[in-house]
Amino acid sequence: MVASTRGRPRSFDRDFALDKAIRMFWRCGYEATSIRDLTDELGIGAPSLYTAFGDKQQLFAEALRVYDARYGGFIDAALTEEPTARKAAARILAEAPARYTRRGLPAGCLVVSGDAGATDEAVRQAARKLRRRNTAAFAAKIRADVDAGRLPADTDALALARYTMAMLSGIAQSASDGVPRSQLERASRIAVQAWP
């Protein structure tokens, strides 16, 4: 005998719906994306949205986490795979223009601009947390290079990490503004030259 399940089964693919939500937040940002926009984009009713993802704030937090792993993992990969902080920075800045202008995806970066204009402190904190984590990981790699003598002893690891991430954020914002990839690539090459 087959046991019956309670409730109605979901009639949509949650991962597919989450990816659509990620892209909507990526294009429009948290503040400009309404529940109505999300239900229209995902093709589900508000009750199904709340059941699957919780409220809009919870959906955005999950969207950020999944975006970071699915679309933004190039920063972690460079920090892990490159032998020095300088090589990691060069790789990240070289890859960023192509990453932020991929065909078929929104321009720019959800982590950089998804919380722009948001008044909800939890939403702003979720994005800040990812940005701070990336900066801290970069600073740790720079400190290791200073300790190993690969960078000058007086290198301010946190300031250099912040500089690099600020350049990366600027490239992402410029991509969102429609700056062509070739111009972003030139800017990234200049940013690398500022490294000690």
From TrEMBL:
Residue ranges flagged as DNA-binding region: 34-53
Pfam families: TetR_C_13, TetR_N
Record InterPro entries: DNA-bd_HTH_TetR-type_CS, Homeodomain-like_sf, HTH_TetR, Tet_transcr_reg_TetR-rel_C_sf, TetR_C
Domain of life assignment: Bacteria
Keyword presence, DNA-binding: yes
The keyword Transcription regulation is assigned to this record: yes
Keyword entries, A-Z: DNA-binding, Transcription, Transcription regulation
Residue span(s) of domain HTH tetR-type: 11-71
UniProt protein name: TetR/AcrR family transcriptional regulator
Organism: Mycobacterium deserti
